[in-house]
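Supplementary material to the annual report.
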Amino acid sequence: MKFLNFKPLSFNARIFLCLVVMMSLFTASLYYVFIQDQKKMLVEKHIAQGKMMASLLADNARLGVFSEDEDRLKYSVSAVLDQDDVLEVLVFNMDWKLLNRDYGPSQVTAVSSGAKPIAAYTETVAAMFSQSWQPVYLADRDRCSFWAPVLARIDNRSEEDFYFNGGSVEPVLENLIGYVGISVSKDGVDRGIETILVRSAEVAMILLFGGIVITFFLVREATRPLDRLMHNVKAHGINVCRDDLGMLEDRYSQMVETIAESFETINDLKLGLEEKVEERTRDLMVAYDELGVREQNVRTANEKLSKTLAELQQTQAHLVHSEKMAAVGRMVAGVAHEVNNPINFITSAMPGLRNNLDDIVAILRRHESEENGSFKENRPILVAPENDSKKIVKEIKTLLGFIEEGARRVSGIVTDLSAFSRVDESAFTEVDINEGLDRTIAILAYEWAHRIEIKKEYEGGLPHVSGIPGQLFQVFTNILVNAIYAIPDQGIITVRTWHDKGWAHIAFRDNGEGIPEDVRKKIFDPFFTTKPPGKGTGLGLGISYGIIKGHNGEIIVTSEVGKGTEFEVILPV
Amino acid sequence: MKRIPVIIILILLVVPSVRAAEVAVLVSGRLNAYEEAYNGFKEGFVGTTSLAGPKAVMSNSIKEFYLTDPGVANDIDQMFFDARPDVIVAIGAKALDRVRSFKDIPVIYLLVPNPGSEILEEENITGVEMDISAARQLGALTRTVPGVKRVGVVCSPGRSRELINKARTYGWSEGLVIVAREISKSRDFGAVLADMKNKVDAIWMVPDRRIYVPQNVELLFLFSLENQIPVLTFSEKYLNTGAVVSVSIAPYGMGQEAGQRAAGILTGVSSEELKVRPVDSSRVTVNHRAVRKIVAAAVHRAPLGEK
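Predicted assembly:
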């Protein structure tokens, strides 16, 4: 394989050249073997055909030889003479007496070339047939001859066989009665061999050419990775010579050396690294222990935090309760104030009414004395009897009117309060927002009636909202309380309701101080309040936000410092 | 009524002394022709013995032996010696050859071509010969191929001479000319046949094995085909190879004739009647295919007998 190291050529070219040479040698060998085989087959076929022709001629000539009928022999021989390359046909009886001799069209050439006459072989053939009756093939330089014995059946039949069918069990015996010989030119075989040579050479050349083309493309495809590698090598600025494989070998050796050095370095580093790993491992163990301690601390802190959270939740509950109590307190204060007025109506009327009752009693007693004549003035009569009675009745009516008005007002307050009495219910019902707003405003009216004007801009026929009335009224109360608180002096609170696309909107706008931006972000945070300590829990709006969220609603706050604030509650219809 | 017991006693005393006749049939082999002849024999024998003779009160037994069966060829002499049959029937030449040694048992042969003069001289041997009369053969030829005038025949010197003479006698009366040629060598057959070309209207193939060796049989039918000359033959066997008409013996009828003879022997027929005689039964078979190919073509070519 040293030729593969032919340096001036690239690896592709060397492989291609090698394959072409091998293919050529293989084709030449195959061609040689094929030709030899074909020649052998052709000769064997020629001999087999010749022997068969001699056998057929012997069989055809059997009757002619038996009866030595020249005409019949000529007729039998004529079919053989029509065959190509047949030079001469001879028929002998068993004593080698020539019975028939005919020549084929090629005989002139054979004779002129000085070929040995076929009759010269008779002694040889006789000797061969004394051994066996198989057809014989003889050949010299220019022609060959085929010989076959002429056999006649021996009449070994029984007498019955002469008369009847199916009686003979005797084997058919034959007797030698003559010989036939056919001389054939070798030109036919030579022409056949020449044809095979030419045709085979043509096929071999075509196959070789096709093989070379295919090999070229195969080598090109097979070495494409090498080409890419060389291209990459060139791209790294390495000078590539024609001996690409040698260059790659050098580069590979260099790489191996580099890698070996790298491995040595890595081994050195590995030793130091192992030490470092051990050191780090020790550190990690210490850190792990510390982590355990910290984890324990964290667990303890978590427990404390959990405890604190529980306390905070308890505190939150207390605070919520305080908020509720504060709201209740405010409500009670409002209610007390509101109830106080009608009660004043009643209590103011009571002294007058009692006096009037005394007058009536005095009048009645006087009438009784006059009737009995025992009238005794115990108490002075303040009014004249007739005029006074009319006046008393009038006063009593007036006073009863006060009492009735006071009782009616108290009844109205109680009715309003009933809406708040359901604060703990949790079932969703249909809530009339406008009515709820009216009642909430009525309860809280004592705080703003003297300084705050309220404007109601309700949408008539606002759809009812599905919700818990007590919770919603608590939200309205909280918002209104904050609005009232935001107006330090005189002011206006506008309450507006409307609905749009399946949502009910309730807006509370005041023209108070407004909420700064930093505060507005925190107003819904629990415990955030701007009120002085003790005035507010900081849970009102937080709870309100939670209630509205619980109703799948939303609270939007818009505010401008110095101009006012608007809380818009949006609830699904 | 007193005579009845006496008659019964007399019968019982007499009957065992009257033995049933035994016929032994020795067959040369299992040819269809032999089987037909054997069946004809049984028919002829049984049909005859059931009507005549004192032994008719007993059923006669027929035992057949085939020489080709295992052991028969070796033991047949001992078997016949022990059995002492009343009649031996030999079917075929081989069977006849095997029973010639039994001089004291009547032997009837059949289907034996040319049994030989020494056989005919034996007093205990009789049979049915296979010779068919020339008149019957030539008559079949003229019926099949009307217009035949000249009939060629090739035979060995001396052999078939009697047959040919009878044919000539028949021909004179029927307007036929027998063109006979004698040859001493079978290989001369071709030349004689070639010489007969254009001289005969038909060839008569007589049963002469010395002439009709296989090659000459081929030559004869090749000659017949090439020259459109019909062949009259003695066996149906040669119809397949190109003969136009055959007049052959009928094995079944021949067997019947032999059976009647066997029955005659058992019933004491005179020796004069038991001489060998030609067969009465024959059959004519026509090869219509050959008639179409040879005779019809010859008619188109030239009228037969007018060459």
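Chain A touches chain B through 19 residues (CB under 8 Å).
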